[in-house]
């Protein structure tokens, strides 16, 4: 698993055994490096070693597009209760941040990405995070493989054709399992809700996700006026 090297406001994600080259000097990361250590470059500049946490993966994974925001991931984790031993089907891998969060919670994740170059990046991200043994990144359209995948505890979807998968969720989910759909548009959200209802899923619920920062100054305290912090829509349903 990689570690985070921190110097003031700079952060670098580096695997043990690799060399980091910056304008502050060259630093060789030991194979047995431990969080909490302090390493120095050949110019005497100190870097502190931190263990990886979920937000670090979001900030430092190589990106192939806009990754799912931590606030959306948190809602998915909270609503579905993903935990150790769960088997998860994830469609729409992208950068792989959601898959990484779920794997770090102890789940075994099978994730599909249609673009081969995106899938390659996601595999490397899983390796950097030290969870490539828990995340199986597959290249292809998940709708073409549903008959061969078996059952899952949770299904997470971030694809334009999510409603098509939702219509087959009763055959994919164990009893009591959850499906989660992330949609950037209301129309896709409505399609997912209608598909869930048509196949008899229960507890069908949708949310718009909004987060606002708080501003504190001498005049007083209030939510930030810079945007509303909208990211998208999340739909959840359960297989009875």
Name the descriptors:
single chain, 240 residues, alpha/beta, Vcp-like ATPase, Chain A, domain 2, Rossmann fold, 7-stranded mixed beta sheet, 4-stranded antiparallel beta sheet, 7 helices, 15 strands, 35% strand
Quick rundown:
The protein is an alpha/beta fold. It has 7 helices and 15 strands. The protein has helices at 54-60, 70-80, 97-104, 116-129, 162-166, 169-172, 186-198; strands at 3-7, 10-14, 19-22, 25-28, 38-40, 46-50, 87-91, 108-113, 135-139, 152-157, 173-183, 202-210, 214-217, 220-223, 230-238.
General description of the model:
There is one protein chain. The protein is an alpha/beta fold and 240 residues long. It folds into two domains: 3-51, Vcp-like ATPase, Chain A, domain 2; 56-238, Rossmann fold (3-Layer(aba) Sandwich). 26% of the residues lie in helices and 35% in strands. It contains seven helices and 15 strands. The chain has helices at residues 54-60, 70-80, 97-104, 116-129, 162-166, 169-172, 186-198; strands at 3-7, 10-14, 19-22, 25-28, 38-40, 46-50, 87-91, 108-113, 135-139, 152-157, 173-183, 202-210, 214-217, 220-223, 230-238. The strands form four sheets. Strands 9-8-7-10-11-15-12 form a seven-stranded mixed beta sheet, sandwiched between helices. Strands 2-1-6-5 form a four-stranded antiparallel beta sheet, with no helix packed on it. Strands 3-4 form a two-stranded antiparallel ribbon. A hairpin with a 2-residue loop joins strand 13 (214-217) and strand 14. It starts with a strand and ends with a strand. The mean pLDDT is 94.
